[in-house]
Amino acid sequence: MPTERNVFDLLEPELQSLAKKRFAKPTPIQEKVIPALLAGGNALVISETGSGKTEAALLPLFNSLLKVEHNPVTILYITPLRSLNRDMLKRIMWWAVHLDFEVGVRHGDTSNYERKMQTANPPDMLIVTPETLQAILTARIMREHLKNIRHIVIDEVHELVSNKRGLQLAVGLERLKKLTGGNAQLVELSATVGSPERVLEFFNLHRGTADIINMAKSRAISISVESPRPVKGDKALGERIFIGPATAARLRRIREIINERKAVLTFTNTREFAEILSSRIRNLDSSLPVDTHHSSLSKNVRIEAEERFKREEVKALICTSSLELGIDIGAIDFVIQYMSPRQVSKLLQRIGRAGHSLERVSEGAVIATDADDCLEATAIASLGMRGWIEDTLAYPKSLDVLAHQIVGICLDEYRPETGKIFSLVRAANSFSSLTADEFWAVCLLLERLRLVWINSDSRERPEKIKEEKEMAGYSIRLRKAAWQYYYENLTTIPNIRNYQIINMITNKPVGSLDAEFVAMHGAPGTSFICKGQSWKIISTTEDRIYAEPLHSMEAAIPAWEGELIPVPYEVAQLVGSLRREVEGLLGKHPKGSVLKTLTAKYPVTADAARKMCVLVMKQMKFGFVPNENEVLLEFHSAGGEHWAVIHSCWGSLANDTIGRALSSLLMDRLGSVGLQTDPYRIMLRLQKPDFQAVEQTLRGIEPGDIRRILKHILPDTELFRWRFMHVAQRLGIVSKDSDYRKAYIKKIVENYANTPAFDEAMNEVLVEKQDIERSCQILKRLKSGEIRTRTMQGLSPMGELGLRRKYEIIAPRRAEGEIFGLFRKRLMETKLAMVCVNCGSLARQCSVENIPDGIECRRCHAKLISIVPHRHAEGASKLMRDFLLQKKIAKEDRKYIGWMQTTASLYITHGKDAALALAGRGVGPRTAGRILSKGRKGDDLLRGILDAERQYVKTRMFWKG
């Protein structure tokens, strides 16, 4: 019988044979894609991880290598991650060896030797990141090789469309199109796309001649939302590793899953949480082979973790989005998401890593925490099981990216005309709305920054223009600084400095905070959570945060808060709908029956459903359950604080947008207003309990005023100033290691207030952190009565959940005695030296703990002994001898002699307590004398020394010497 024909038979014989050897039969996506690409078409290909879409895209391109005469580089493969580049190289090498073609990878880690080899002997296929393409586009010899490109593949395209990396790549591809003559075939790949048409338009080099091949729902997926209740033994387990029984139950469940499965990926939403969760799991079971993987770890550490996982030396990786994309790292058979993933696309992308083939089911579980987390995770899992994905938002034009591309185009060709640059940039769909005046303003800013000259025919250059024709006769020439600016700003990802956190109690580093957190929350007195512990900032220097541990987590800001992705409006609305549904069920049926209904209808366990029911039942007793169409305004005063909590299921961005506008308008009536938002609440802290003003102002906001209000208030926010520094970096206004303290940032913002830098910072905040369009729709519905409101006094259970700001896996609260114990230990272990004031000899060098209350000089038997830092021992001894011999002493050294004499007096009077006080950081003889003169002992003395250290850390920047 003749064998059944399939799409592999369309390939060249040599490739056909390899494809049939590699695959038992073509996958559904291969059946669709291969014929389309062999015909020369352009396509956006959407299909799950493990469906064979990469080979579906590449086999027709390999076919072209065999069939058509070509010069390298012929295929350009673009991926958003270096790690994905490395993985692709390994996958393609098998084909390259058997088909006898060259493949190479080029990114930031590529050695100079490899780059020279690629330039001299270019590969047939080159794998790059978007940033690498920007670098090689301007290289003289590489440009000649790039002219030969006939096929371009963009992998994980959804990761690029929604941010500035995609904008930069879009213009880069237009530059490449001009170089190749516009004949290159374009293929885009993704596992999850919410708006295929929008994604297709973003990189569409061929203007509507591409196909969307979407087979994203062909793979079976199983998701369960769990929130295990503590069982017998969890309390003891929690006490052993210093966590509560509820957290212990969740960790126990994670351990069970890891032990039951072959290879497990456990995703967290932030790097901080990945570290915390890893440490807790290791404390729980030190024999469990677990590694950590996130973007803050070095490349070598990440690669080693991946390799150990592939070799099955570890059973689980605790990771962030660093392993979300399609890197092949082994036979993963289960994925855990710790806490809600916040977006459906995130959950599907992550769960899709399990069961890396079409025949297998992708299995995963969300381990949820409190009731809010259970409701959100259930909503997301339910939408994911239905195949719904959020819209993929295309990033609009960006003026800092424009500036970089103008310089890049000037590197491509000598003295291009401004009109030609303008037309080339506008050819990218995302820049199609760019106005001539916006373009001209960026050119003038580049000239102000001494990066370019705008040349003209002896005409006076206008400050503003209205039409493209007014650019005629102008060209741009680069200045010397332009080369450095271009290559230092190849990436649009901001360079984030880290500040080391120093524990004041132990004087040891405990972690780090990034510059964004410091810029927005780094004021002395601010409380924050880091490494599972609450801290209070005492002082900030250029690269350090001095902080002390706190007992309470109340009102502390988590260091990872800025990393959290926003919860979409649609998810928040479904959470509101779930609340309404649970309320309706509980009003008619007993709780046991409701639990059965929920577990049958939604991908949720009984324990998680029970938490949802308990919260709704408590809220029903309060009197009202807010849902997707009904908003609760509740007002609460306690302990001198006045809170207005607006329960609004509108998602992260809309709540923040409306919250900012509302708080701004209220300030005119009530003075200072504190704002805190989450996807389900707008929380306002008021100076006085004028709750009627809150209700009236919310109802009175005109939808058309939202944009104007935000543009008025945002420049005074830390969020705007921080984003301005990102833009300023990309424009070359400030260096990547600039000062990020508030005073410096404020000055830079003022200097560039009426420039494209300011406009772009505003654009970035409005695009990424606000949702004006959705907020206007909501306010219109509020005014029309379509969204109903209810006002109540008191703090409801759902309101309390929001104000409590509960964060998971918190370390035990340290008692004050334990903190003082650590502080005393550090002082006692401090090494000091003792110098005789009578003869200058070195009497002793030891830790404070080993200093006796009284000591005499071994040489002259005098008891007037000075205490000096250990590192100054030899110098202090010599200086005292020179003084006693009446040698000439410098003015500064005479001060030190007086310092030594005073410490000797303190020691002879107070004994070991004097040494303890002088061991404090920044505690000199005058301060030590003031502390000791009050007769303090024990913990009271330690408090005095600690207070002195705090004062020193706060004021040290103003000291001289």
Write the layout of secondary structure elements.
Layout: H1 13-22, H2 28-38, E1 42-46, H3 53-67, E2 75-78, H4 82-99, E3 103-106, H5 112-120, E4 125-128, H6 130-137, H7 140-146, E5 151-154, H8 158-161, H9 164-180, E6 185-190, H10 196-202, E7 210-214, E8 221-226, H11 234-240, H12 245-260, E9 264-267, H13 271-284, E10 290-293, H14 299-310, E11 316-319, E12 334-338, H15 344-351, E13 362-367, H16 371-385, H17 399-412, H18 418-426, H19 436-448, E14 452-455, E15 475-478, H20 481-488, E16 498-503, E17 508-514, H21 515-521, E18 527-530, E19 533-540, E20 544-549, E21 557-558, H22 569-588, H23 591-601, H24 606-622, E22 630-638, E23 641-647, H25 651-670, E24 673-678, E25 681-686, H26 691-700, H27 706-713, H28 718-731, H29 742-751, H30 756-768, H31 772-784, E26 788-793, H32 797-804, H33 816-829, E27 831-836, E28 842-847, E29 865-869, H34 873-884, H35 891-910, H36 912-918, H37 925-932, H38 938-955
Parallel strand pairs: 1-6, 1-7, 2-4, 2-5, 3-4, 5-6, 8-13, 9-11, 9-12, 10-11, 12-13, 16-20, 18-21, 22-26
Antiparallel strand pairs: 14-15, 16-17, 18-19, 19-20, 22-23, 23-25, 24-25, 27-28, 27-29
